[in-house]
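Just curious: can you write whichever protein you like plus the matching structure tokens?

***
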Amino acid sequence: MLKKTVVICFFFVGLINHLEAQQKRSLTHQDYDGWESLRSEKITKDGRWVSYQISPQEGDGRIEIFPFKNPGNKYVIPRGTSFSFTADDQFVVGKILPQEDTVHLLKVKKTKKEDMPTDSLFIYEMSTGELEKYARVKSFDTPSEKGSWVAILFEKEKPAKKDPADSTSKAEKPKKTDGTKLLVRSLSGDQSFEFERVKSYGFAPNGDYFHFELAEEDTLDNAAIHILNLATGKVRKFIRG
């Protein structure tokens, strides 16, 4: 009798497992496409704000920013990437990528590189929720230890096209240089400096000084490295040529 009971129990256990197996389905590629990964997690030094990047298997990602004590009050920046908190814990600065579908379609059409969409820059102030954007941005930098500044290096300007209504006009030929326009501004927006033909740049960690290198234009003679005193706004040439 005991042996018969054990057999019946094993039968019902096997039946239950079989039914559960039938109810579960195998994962498909469609399921994988819906998965999202979380990366680049960051928190401000004062612990008040948290941010991270969400990257799907396919399609555009996003950056999510929220106060640590109120995670439901979330701000989302579509297609945001390569972001960081500023040294004063007041802003998030990062890039915004072009829409992936648009880029893919243009690549299929074999669009020229100079006609492809470029990255943008965003500056988000956490306390006010104010968002600023800049178009055609190549790179950016902020001081690592203190200071409330951002430097923005822009892509090359597209050469002016010939006026079709004027048969005598000619398209202006740009001078030979790999430098582009640079904007250095306080994050509050009350101070700003612009420089042309900039090749490389960077802040001192303490945010007191900023250096930038001017690329040569046609000849090496006009290349130079400069130092900008952010407190006074004075620029000093450090190396010429």
